[in-house]
Specification:
binds zinc ion; mainly alpha; elongated; 0% strand; Four Helix Bundle (Hemerythrin (Met), subunit A)
């Protein structure tokens, strides 16, 4: 696995997610604008934005943790059992902290 490439991939994704989270947050902070006449629709929009922001924030912290593991050399090992996460899984989800068997136990 090319760690340099993985690292730049993660960093790009981090920038993208940070932007997305900030946009969602500023839209939320603008609050209940006069543009929205239907409060129900607006409330639903808020929920969508909040969950969007929440999932972006969760992924941001996972990516930061993955970048830290690249730095300390433990990237690619499952944080729970210490086994290899596996190249296919790392390619699919580069920021994943766990191997497929540990990850499926939690879900
Ligand atoms: Zn594991």
């Amino acid at each position: 696995m090319d760690l340099k490439q993985t690292k730049s991939l993660l960093e790009e994704r981090l920038v993208m997610l940070t932007t997305r989270a900030e946009e969602a947050e500023s839209t939320l902070r603008e609050g209940h604008s006069a543009d929205f006449e239907e409060y129900a629709t607006e409330a639903e929009g808020d929920e969508v934005l909040e969950s969007l922001e929440g999932s972006a924030v969760a992924e941001i912290s996972q990516i930061n943790a993955a970048l830290a593991r690249i730095e300390d050399g433990s990237y690619g090992e499952c944080v729970t059992c210490g086994e290899e996460v596996g190249e296919k899984r790392m390619e699919a989800v580069p920021h994943t902290p766990q191997c497929i068997s540990c990850a499926s136990k939690h879900s």
